[in-house]
């Protein structure tokens, strides 16, 4: 039935869109309109069935009242006003929907990004997603999301373009992994949920992005011809070709948490997905997101990610951002795929007005739900207009009345929060003979260009040779109002011990010197080496080493200093080839911790905070050990030829290394503490449903945000007991990895998958019981035949430990009789 309807609508689109289609199989999505489907070439996936029409919002999940307000609002709009509501226009914010003064609607302000309100002054720069994930701490994730949300709102932003679950981290090299959380759907899912609840509790709409399959930056957008002519494309963007099971169990998983958390809006991604552009892929938008997951909000395009009018509207896209045509959508004068084209398409009967209404209803429902219509919702800070290089005032086509105080300081006391978070998310990877914490050293040497103050300002630190690095680049960066460097913080701290502190920040000098010549005559008690690794949007990483000859710096220092402590600021994975060097006594991975970086690090170095971060990815022995590298080149010239086949399926990060028994340097979930912990042998599995066993198939319940509510039902509680066996207080992160029964679970299931974690602070000698609540989804695989989540028959193994490769206790249990 769905497929028959799809056939009819696709034919309609073919007739009215006026483009040259191939005349091929109409029972497929936009992809098939522009390229004949050849399943011999494409194989079992790489093409996308049409799922039409786009479902209407119902307000399910508590939005019913807000939905009614949205409907009442839409009832008063002209078709032109409706078109304004779905189409961005240049204005003070990164994305703008114009006001409708006659209805008292003040417009919508959409602002980047996932670690700060970027286009702003007097706002905080929080830690990046990768750092937040490394905390493995639900409370921290919520606090961060909430504090960020307060700053967005106080600056007058209705919508925060945050958080990120795409990229998930399929490839170690992807340029935007740091904006997201972990190379694991479960941890990322929890992080999405907490962040979104934090943002929205603060009154700001969250925008989980980039939906979906945005796993590399290279060729994420089409390559227009040399003259940039709109429509003249040399290559269409890369197509992420993902099979159905992998889609559900990896890439869609954290987005399901996002919908469950009540996310207001979604941002579709730049690249193609199984052949058609993600922002016009009806299978992804209508089928998976609005249908299967019951998403009640709206989908906006990534900036310039809209490549059609009618096809995108029918395919489920609700808002075109930033609204114009051309690369990144900023060619405002060239028109828009939405805007007047949407009006025309409704007026000439191509698009039913009910679809346009649903787009606006979806946009306005979360607005009312979050009380953004309140008189006291802050105005857009006028200062944003001048900071916005994306659509400066000279580009504006519509009127914006900027009122209220300019350059409002919205930072509150968030500096203290960011400092604490930065320390709590730091991962201690190595600590030999108690090198850390420092014990009042009287002589300290600091090395590396990442140690000192930035010398070229505080924004987009890409090419700064000198200066500490706290965020990556692109739309996900932040504008620092101040920055505590490691050098500054350590000097302040060392002053309490009246210590001698010497520093060398020139990496070339350090790498090419005999450092004993530098520090003469005082031999330092500890050598602190600070390294940095940049990554940014629109570019994938070329290597997994640290930048600026950082490895040579470590070797040079460690050659002469038997207490070398290395600290990395990094977007994520670094291979750390010197990790086993006997003189490298400690390693700290701080990632991108935000504006209080130096203080956070000093708190860890001196033991004020006991490290409790854990790796949210795997550090392999060699860069070449990682699978699924980005597709960086093709040898053919066909317009559609950029393809990325996700043939590794479920085997990303630790799932891959475990499945192939590959040795790694530091595994997923690993991290040390200044104290020690033990897990008792006994792992218990308690039923939470009143019956020991459960059905394989979930009860069919009406879809709610997040999907079938039965999938979120807690079925079992796996409990274990953890003890702090060391001498100081500290937090640890017991983790639960589930091994699915073999034989009854389809081939390709990874040996172990994270399905629970909990961060627990314990005093010396203290023991606590920890529980991992397993929902139905946690025990299910996606069955591509029945299109259901099924719990396989047979015995599961519940592995509890301190990392993915440090399993301390297990229990076996068969949930399905
Ligand atoms: C599909 O591709 C295969 C392999 O290139 C080719 O042999 C076959 O003729 C193609 N089929 C059609 C219908 O074009
Ligand atoms: C959406 O609701 C309108 C009535 O408001 C109805 O005409 C239309 O058919 C519905 N669309 C879908 C896809 O159910
Ligand atoms: C680009 O513009 C130049 C100068 O107008 C023209 O000579 C050239 O043919 C154009 N290239 C393409 C691919 O359209
Ligand atoms: C309609 O869309 C086309 C691209 O398909 C664009 O060239 C044109 O300018 C748009 N019209 C308006 C009025 O925006
Ligand atoms: C209706 O309007 C849309 C958008 O401008 C256009 O693409 C389409 O060709 C028009 N169809 C007809 C039948 O006029
Ligand atoms: C801007 O302010 C003027 C004067 O108060 C008012 O007439 C106009 O409607 C306002 N425009 C918008 C977009 O709010
Ligand atoms: C860093 O050291 C190298 C090697 O001694 C030197 O050539 C270079 O000029 C130094 N850079 C700065 C900025 O001092
Ligand atoms: C480095 O300098 C020290 C002190 O001058 C000296 O003892 C040592 O031999 C030098 N090492 C090298 C490799 O030059
Ligand atoms: C470690 O440092 C000491 C100096 O304290 C040095 O003599 C030794 O050679 C270093 N070891 C290595 C493996 O470089
Ligand atoms: C490390 O080097 C220092 C200074 O040269 C020396 O006093 C100390 O004994 C060395 N420690 C070890 C474990 O080699
Ligand atoms: C392109 O062709 C070269 C030479 O045949 C080959 O080595 C390379 O792997 C090919 N690259 C791709 C992306 O297919
Ligand atoms: C699971 O166990 C933990 C630890 O005993 C407990 O705190 C939690 O309430 C339990 N959850 C359920 C649903 O029973």
UniProtKB/TrEMBL annotation:
One of its GO terms (biological process) is cellulose catabolic process. It holds the Pfam family Fn3-like. Residues 1-20 form the signal peptide. Residues 732-804 form the Fibronectin type III-like domain. One of its GO terms (molecular function) is beta-glucosidase activity. Keywords: Carbohydrate metabolism, Cellulose degradation, Glycoprotein, Glycosidase, Hydrolase, Polysaccharide degradation, Secreted, Signal. It is found in: Secreted. One of its GO terms (cellular component) is extracellular region. The keyword RNA-binding does not apply. Gene3D superfamilies: Glycoside hydrolase family 3 C-terminal domain, Glycoside hydrolase, family 3, N-terminal domain, Immunoglobulins. SMART domains: Fn3_like. Its EC number is 3.2.1.21. Pathway: Glycan metabolism; cellulose degradation. It catalyses: Hydrolysis of terminal, non-reducing beta-D-glucosyl residues with release of beta-D-glucose. PANTHER family: BETA-GLUCOSIDASE (PTHR42715), BETA-GLUCOSIDASE G-RELATED (PTHR42715:SF12). Belongs to the glycosyl hydrolase 3 family. Beta-glucosidases are one of a number of cellulolytic enzymes involved in the degradation of cellulosic biomass. Catalyzes the last step releasing glucose from the inhibitory cellobiose. This is Beta-glucosidase cel3A. It comes from Microdochium trichocladiopsis.
């Amino acid at each position: 039935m769905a497929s028959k309807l799809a056939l009819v609508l696709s034919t309609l689109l073919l007739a009215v869109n006026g483009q040259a289609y191939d005349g091929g199989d109409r029972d497929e999505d936009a992809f098939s309109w522009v390229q004949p489907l050849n399943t011999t070439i494409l194989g079992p996936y790489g093409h996308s069935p049409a799922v039409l029409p786009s479902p209407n919002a119902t307000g399910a999940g508590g939005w019913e009242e807000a939905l009614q307000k949205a409907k009442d609002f839409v009832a008063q709009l002209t078709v032109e006003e409706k078109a304004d509501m779905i189409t961005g226009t240049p204005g003070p914010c990164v994305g703008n929907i114009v006001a409708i003064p006659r209805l008292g609607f003040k417009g919508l302000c959409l602002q980047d990004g996932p670690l700060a309100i970027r286009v702003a002054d007097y706002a905080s720069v929080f830690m990046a997603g990768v750092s937040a994930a490394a905390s493995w701490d639900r409370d921290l994730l919520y606090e961060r999301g909430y504090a960020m949300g307060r700053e967005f709102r106080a600056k007058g932003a209705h919508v925060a373009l945050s958080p990120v679950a795409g990229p998930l981290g399929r490839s170690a090299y992807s340029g935007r992994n740091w904006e997201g959380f972990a190379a694991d759907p479960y941890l990322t899912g929890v992080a999405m949920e907490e962040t979104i609840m934090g943002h929205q509790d603060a009154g700001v709409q969250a925008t989980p992005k980039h939906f979906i399959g945005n796993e590399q930056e290279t060729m994420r957008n089409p390559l227009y011809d040399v003259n940039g002519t709109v429509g003249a494309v040399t290559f269409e963007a890369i197509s992420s070709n993902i099979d159905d099971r992998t889609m559900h169990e990896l890439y869609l998983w954290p987005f399901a948490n996002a919908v469950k958390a009540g996310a207001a809006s979604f941002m579709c991604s730049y690249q193609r997905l199984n052949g058609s552009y993600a922002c016009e892929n009806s299978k992804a938008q209508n089928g998976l997101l609005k249908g299967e997951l019951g998403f009640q909000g709206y989908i906006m395009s990534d900036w310039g990610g809209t490549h059609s009018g009618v096809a995108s509207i029918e395919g489920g896209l609700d808002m075109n951002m930033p609204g114009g045509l051309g690369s990144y959508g900023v060619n405002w004068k060239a028109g828009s795929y939405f805007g007047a084209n949407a009006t025309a398409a409704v007026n000439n009967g191509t698009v039913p007005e009910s679809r346009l209404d649903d787009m606006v209803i979806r946009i306005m429902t979360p607005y009312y739900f979050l009380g953004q219509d309140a008189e006291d919702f802050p105005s857009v800070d006028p200062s944003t207009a001048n900071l916005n290089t994306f659509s400066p005032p000279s580009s504006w086509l519509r009127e914006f009345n900027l009122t209220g105080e300019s350059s409002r300081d919205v930072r509150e006391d968030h500096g203290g929060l960011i400092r604490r978070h930065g320390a709590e998310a730091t991962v201690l990877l190595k600590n030999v003979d108690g090198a850390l914490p420092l014990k009042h050293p009287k002589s300290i040497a600091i090395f590396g260009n990442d140690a000192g103050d930035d010398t070229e300002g505080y924004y987009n630190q890409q090419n700064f040779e000198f200066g500490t690095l706290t965020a990556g680049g692109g739309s996900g960066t932040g504008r620092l109002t101040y920055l505590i460097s490691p050098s500054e913080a350590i000097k302040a701290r060392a002053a309490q011990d009246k210590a001698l502190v010497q520093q060398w920040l020139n990496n070339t000098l350090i790498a090419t010197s005999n450092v004993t010549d530098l520090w003469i005559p005082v031999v330092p008690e500890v050598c602190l080496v600070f390294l940095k690794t940049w990554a940014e949007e629109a570019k994938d990483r070329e290597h997994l080493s640290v930048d600026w000859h950082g490895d040579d710096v470590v070797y040079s220092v460690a050659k002469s200093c038997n207490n070398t402590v290395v600290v990395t600021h990094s977007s994520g994975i670094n291979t750390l080839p010197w990790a086993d060097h006997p003189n490298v006594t400690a390693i700290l991975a701080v990632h991108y911790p935000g504006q209080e970086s130096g203080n956070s690090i000093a708190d860890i170095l001196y033991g004020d905070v006991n490290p409790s971060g854990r790796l949210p990815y795997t550090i392999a022995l060699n860069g070449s050990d990682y699978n699924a590298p980005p597709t960086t080149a093709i040898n053919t010239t066909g317009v559609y030829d950029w393809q990325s086949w996700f043939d590794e399926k479920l085997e990303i990060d630790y799932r891959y290394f475990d499945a192939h028994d590959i040795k790694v340097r530091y595994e997923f979930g690993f991290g040390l503490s200044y104290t020690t912990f033990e897990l008792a042998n006994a792992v218990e599995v308690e039923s939470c449903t009143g019956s020991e066993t459960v059905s394989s198939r979930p009860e069919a319940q009406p879809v709610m945000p997040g999907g079938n509510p039965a999938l979120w039902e807690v079925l079992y509680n796996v409990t274990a007991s953890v003890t702090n066996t060391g001498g100081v207080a500290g937090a640890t992160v017991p983790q639960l990895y589930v091994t699915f029964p073999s034989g009854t679970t389809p081939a390709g299931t990874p040996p172990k998958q994270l399905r629970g974690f909990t961060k627990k602070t314990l005093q010396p000698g203290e023991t606590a019981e920890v529980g991992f609540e397993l929902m139905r989804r946690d025990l299910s695989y996606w069955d591509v035949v029945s299109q259901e989540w099924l719990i396989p028959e047979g015995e599961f193994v519940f592995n509890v430990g301190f990392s993915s490769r440090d399993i301390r206790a297990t229990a076996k249990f068969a949930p399905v009789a």
